[in-house]
Amino acid sequence: MASKPVDPDKIVESLQRASVFSGLTKKQLESLAKNSKERTFRAGERIVREGESGVGFYLILDGHVDVNKGGKSLAKLGSGQFFGELTLLDDQPRSADVTALEDTRCLLMTSWEFRAFLKTNPDASLAVMRELARRLREAGKLAE
Known about the structure:
alpha+beta, five-stranded antiparallel sheet, four-stranded antiparallel sheet
């Protein structure tokens, strides 16, 4: 479905709740919101496909998605949760499929918009890296 600009005032609160952006200031979050687009997906629609190149980060505003790898469901995500955060930093293919379980509204932030944001807000890089490092440590503990 088509994308449209997002009202930054309505999105900042959702971004604040996303752990990957938890260390950013309100002004930085407003900048991110301004450069993001809202996308709506119908129930059953594949949002991202495993193995394809990623465009960016998705924050679920409403609805639920299934994260699936090789036919096995890895997680169900809902409002306030997100996926695709690694695509903001690297150009690697998607590691899983993500499919809308119901009509789902997401905030899409492309990797090129995020990288431009980091160039103008270098202190934000450290905050994002800290959160990604924390998530990697958690994932490593789960694998043990």
